[in-house]
Each structure stands twice: as C-alpha cells, then as structure tokens.
C-alpha cells in the first residue's frame, strides 16, 4: 500500500515537472470528471514494480527513476541531406557515438574469443550464451562507416532541435533513442546483402539500414497499414524519390507471422523488431497505452505474437543467414524467454538449427555511451540509467546453421 502511495506521489510529481517532458510528448490533462481513476501509466508502473523488482532486484529503483525521467535522444545523420549538419551538431557539443568508442576494445576482444572456446553452462533448454559464442562476427570492422549518430555527452541532457529540411526538402537527421540503433549495428549488414525488416514502422531502423548504402535488396514490412503509410512518409522526408522508387526497395503490409508462407530461406539478414510493452512509453503517455484496460488481451498475447514473429524471421533467413530479435522492454518473458522458445521450436518443428551469436564485442565497444545489463544469459540489453538515459533495448542475434 505504502509503495502504491509512493508510486502515485512520484507519478504526480513527474507530471508536475512538465518542463522536463519534451513538448511533443505532452498530453493535455483531461477534465476531472472524465479522468480515469486508474490511468494506464499508473497500471504500467504497478505492473513493472511487481515484475521488475523481482527481475532486477536492487537495481530496479535506479532503473525505475531513469525510466520516469526524460529520455535521451540521438540524431541519426542523413547522408542524403545537403546541409552541413555534422559540424553544426559537433559545434553544439555532440559527438558521434559510433566513432567515440572505448579504446580498450581491441585489447578486450582476444579475451572474449578465448572464452568462446570454453563450453558454456547450459540452462534447461540446452541453450547458453557461451555455447553460441562467435566473437569474431562482430569486430568493429563490420560496422558501416556511413552510419553516424550524434549524442550529447554522458550526463548532458540538452535537447536536439527538430531537424530542418535542406534545399531538396530532405531532413538532416532523425531523432531516435540512440540505443535503438544498436540492433541495426548488431545485424551486421554487409555489401550486397538481401535484408528483411519484418516489423518496420515507423521506420527509425529502416532509415539506419538504408544509411549503410550497402544493401542490395531491402524488404520493409509492417502489418499496420496506417503505420506503413507513416513509414513511407518518413522515408520520403529522408531519401531522394529516385532511391525510393528503386526496385531494390519493397514496402509491404503483411502479417509478419505468416512470412514463412510467403518467402523462406531467402534473406541474409532479418531484423525482427517486435511489438512489446514499450516500457518507457507505457509509463509516460496514457494515449495509445498497452496497459489501458481495453488492451489487456492484446498485452497478454504479446509473448506469443513475438514468438511467432521471431519464428517467421528465422524461416525467412537463408541457411547461414542471421536474425536479430529486438524489443524496447526489460521484460524477461518478452526477451530471453521468447528467444529460448524460438530456438527449440526451430529445431523441433522446422529442423532448423540456430546458434546464438555473442554481441559482447559490440556492447564492449559502446560501453562509454550506454549502460548495459551485466551477465544476461542470452542476448544483451541497454538499461536506462540517469547519466545515460537510453533504452531499454534488448537484442539477441541468431545465426542459422541449417
Ligand atoms: C517496435 S515497433 C517497430 C519499430 C520499428 N522497427 C522502428 O525502428 O521504427 C513494432 C511494429 O510491429 C508492427 N506489428 C505488429 N504486429 C505485427 C505483425 N503481425 N506483423 C508485422 N508487423 C507487426 C507494429 O505495427 C509496429 O509498427
């Protein structure tokens, strides 16, 4: 009870501190008579308090405080813009987190490769992070030199101004949680790859993938027609019309869970960025909130939908192709559990063997910018932190062996 009261007090305080909430995230208060007694944001906080205090233990209070505070953004540069955005942002004190990496990375990597030779401790499903280790797959060399994402330094909570259109009407940068870029980097797209972005709208990660300028064919899909329209709009604000009309880009609006029936064994890389409880959004905005009473069924079905989407992604990848599963929730049930089940189902129902790819070289490289969870048994996670308030972002990479 005391915790609930504390929670409400804190929520009220957070809402009073409107100056800390970006203008675009502010929601007009409802009249007292129509205001619901249990707004979805409070229900979300109650739910997270119950689940994450168990899952994260003593870390939860500080993660919770970060989640309830203003998030940090990154500015993903648009290489197709004609404006000198990079220097403008650097003059403001921003830095490209992809080049401002941890200098100890090369020294640390051999250790990780050595560890890869050690047999991992397996869980009940026979899956372990170490059993699937392949540290060499994600050396810094595989990161596209064309992706640039600027952030303000650790502890600096300056906001970015909205991007301006250049002479051709193209925007100079896209504002996103900088941690959302990590799944795109972890995907490790290389020259000539066929790529599927299975749940793509509103398109932040699609924009990043296209910035690599190395994809031979990109299929961008989202089940929601209205969100796919939004994605198209985003793409037209960032890319020249000619590039968008190219046959190398296909935009579809299919149910991703059925992808295996459309195309199997095809793509070199598949990004499966699934719908989830979007923890930060659920705590900050009552509109379109998955914790609203009428969406309870939808919320409870999320892990099953996530599993079906990941299975479809695994089937869509070619043998030796790689699949990146990502969410923006801290939930173990929506993260590691989904991956564990998918690995078993792929083997038992489809005869597909997948291996977990170790992403520690990547997290090690960017540990100056992001706060990563320590010792997840499967995958990696950016955990919100007051000094580096990005995430949550969970990612796990799988490689098809058959
Ligand atoms: C987390 S969002 C994706 C964000 C996107 N990757 C980005 O970076 O902007 C999840 C998306 O999955 C879509 N979705 C939900 N169910 C789906 C399904 N069955 N098949 C494909 N997409 C689905 C939702 O419409 C939503 O746009």
Describe this structure in words.
With 402 residues, the chain is of the alpha/beta class. It folds into two domains: 2-22 and 35-67, no CATH class; 74-400, Rossmann fold (3-Layer(aba) Sandwich), CATH 3.40.50.150. Helices cover 36% and strands 15% of the residues. The longest helix has 17 residues, at 40-56. The termini are far apart. The structure holds S-adenosylmethionine. S-adenosylmethionine binds at residues 180, 198-205, 221-224, 227, 255-257, 273, 275.
Q: Count of helical segments?
A: 15
Low-confidence region ranges: 1-5, 105-125, 130-141
User: What is the straight-line distance between the termini?
Assistant: 53 Å
The share of residues in extended strands comes to 15-25%
Q: In one word, what is the shape?
A: globular
Rg is 21 Å
